[in-house]
Structure formats: structure tokens, C-alpha cells
Amino acid sequence: MFTPDRKRVSSRFKSKALLLSLAVGGLLSVSAVMAADGPGLGKPIDESQLQGWDLIVQPDGTGLPEGSGTAAQGQAVYEQNCAACHGMKGEGSSGVPALAGGSLTTTPPLMTAGSYWPHASTLYDYVRRAMPPLAPKSLSNTEVYQVVAYVLHLHGIVERDFVLDRASLPQVKMPNSGNFIDRSQVQ
Questions:
Q1: Which DSSP string corresponds to the chain?
Q2: Residue 50 dihedral angles phi and psi, to the nearest 5°
């Protein structure tokens, strides 16, 4: 039976442990320097620049901006900015969800903005921040009100001449609003 020389094993182990501790110490030193100076990516922004990104609209309408629009006005904006992906009547296309129609009673359910979302303000919030996908946040607040009015009209939720604005939008009753449980206030 072979028995290793304890002095050699101990000295090899100590050498490896020393190298490992030096490597870890070096990495910690480099991280400390980087943390102090930062990684050097990007540049700080000030509060006025942040306002362009802090665009959250709450279910009660808090955060909705000035502006207004009707479905009649929104149809032209929709056709120019949305129809290429979502179809002329919101029917969707391959890989792009339908915006209009939909039903939660079909199998499988077709969840659209009108058949599934609980608040019209959610639709406004999403369109404002994310659409159109190749140029998010490029629509004016008024254009977003117009497009949202048009999408709601495609569902039969609002009339073609209904004026959607920061006061009327939170009052719009979505068909599926009663099927959600609001736990946002639960502590």
C-alpha cells in the first residue's frame, strides 16, 4: 500500500491555498476599486431626464397626462402605427396578438385588451410606454388617447365619438374587470 509523504502533501496544499488566497485577494482589490469608481458605463441622469421614463399610470387613473382623443381620430393613428402588426381591425397576425374580439369562454380563451384586461388605464399605460415596438414612446399623449379609444371602440366598449381623457378613461368599465382580485392594498 502506498502512503504519501505527509510533508510533501502538506507543502503542496499550503502552496495551492496561498495561491488561491492571493487570487481571491486580488479579485477583491479589483472589485473594491471598480465599486469606488463604478464600472464606467453610461452616465448619471438628472430628475428632469427621469420624468420621461417615470410614466406609470395607476388603475384609478393617477398618472394620466393631459390630452384627449376619440376612436374616430384614433383610427388614422392606429392604421399608420399599429395596423401593420395588429391588423386593420385588431385581429392580430402571425406572432402578434389580437387586440380586438377575444373571449374568455372559448377553448382556448382569446385574451385581448378588451376581453381580459381589468382597467382601461392599463391599456393606456402599455401603449404609451411600449408601442409601437420599433419606436416606443414615440406617440404623443393625445395620439395614445386616440389609439386607446379606437381599440376600446373595436371591442364595443366606447362609442366612436366618446372623448377619452384623464377624467373619462378611469370611468371606462372593462368587461372583465370584475374577475380580478386587487391585492395591491393588502399588507
A1: -----HHHHHHHHHHHHHHHHHHHHHHHHHHHHHHHH----S----HHHHTTT-----TT-TT--S-EE-HHHHHHHHHHHTHHHH-TTS--BTTB---S--BSSSSS-B--TTTT-S-HHHHHHHHHHH-STTSTT-S-HHHHHHHHHHHHHHTTSS-TTPPEETTTGGGPPPTTGGG----TT--
A2: -65, -30
CA 19 to mean position of chain CA atoms: 47
In CATH, which superfamily holds the domain spanning 55-179? Cytochrome c-like domain (1.10.760.10)
Amino acid in the structure at residue 10: S
Q: Of the candidates 176, 53, 161, which has an alpha carbon nearest to the alpha carbon of residue 111?
A: 176
Per-residue pLDDT of the chain (187 residues; tens, 9 = 90+): 555 555 555 556 566 665 666 666 666 666 555 555 667 788 888 887 777 666 789 989 999 999 999 999 999 999 999 999 999 999 988 888 888 887 788 788 888 888 888 999 999 999 999 999 999 999 999 999 999 999 999 999 999 999 999 999 999 999 988 888 877 766 6
pTM metric for this prediction: 0.71
The span from the CA of 127 to the CA of 149, in Å, is 11
